[in-house]
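Q: For a teaching handout, I want to show students what a protein-ligand complex looks like in token form. Below are the inputs, and the small molecule is S-adenosylmethionine. Please produce the holo structure.
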Amino acid sequence: MNSIQLSNRLKKVCSYVKEDAVIADIGSDHAYLPCYLVLNNKVNKAIAGEVVRGPYESALRNVKKNGLQEHVSVRLANGLFAIEPSDDVDTVIIAGMGGTLISTILDKGIALLGNVSRLILQPNLHAQAIRQWAVENKWKIVAEDILNEDDKIYEIVVLEKGSEVYNELELLVGPFLISSKNDAFIEKWTRETNEWRRVLKSLENAEETMAIKSKKEQLITNLALIGKVLST
Ligand code: SAM
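A: Here is the structure, written as tokens, with S-adenosylmethionine included.
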């Protein structure tokens, strides 16, 4: 993969970036995504944030290789602290991490989201943590996507400021995804429910501590919720 040949997953993430947005890609790794957006004339200015030195240096090299130093600023920083107020960033992208880590990054840097109007988040797992974070912090879901690439299933959750109420099922599977129910969605939840059944079975013979009891109850509730979705 290079700046021009992006994975389908990251291309899909890019499709939610508005023309001429000023973006910060947090956890940018090689900075493929910001380079791609600039090279394809979708954005003119981007920040690539990385907390680990190796990927940070790789991002610097890539930006230089593509001659994009005027357009992509690479910063070694933890989470949203890569953003400076004078950047006028309006769109934050965080892709390729767990939903819980993405929520923690958003929490820690929440003060830096003042001028940001769109969050494009691509959790590799536990998207529910992001939907929960959105509700608690007055962001609403404006779009969602789910895709299968190389037999891995990825979700994308796009947030804008605003309040919205979601029920338990919507928080778990996504209000937009549930209404489209594409093949990747069915595949994801079929795999997930198979795994839950396996865990439930393995807990049958375990000593029933409070924690085990509560885990079992959660699994049974979730299986019932998803069971209805998959059967209709
Ligand atoms: N965003 C790219 C993608 O979707 O392909 C790279 C994903 S890679 C699996 C996750 C990257 O996030 C790693 O390069 C890691 O160093 C970086 N990362 C993890 N926690 C971070 C944080 N708190 N702040 C900035 N970068 C972080």
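A: Two things your students might notice: The first strand starts at residue 22 and ends at 26. The two ends are 39 Å apart (CA to CA).
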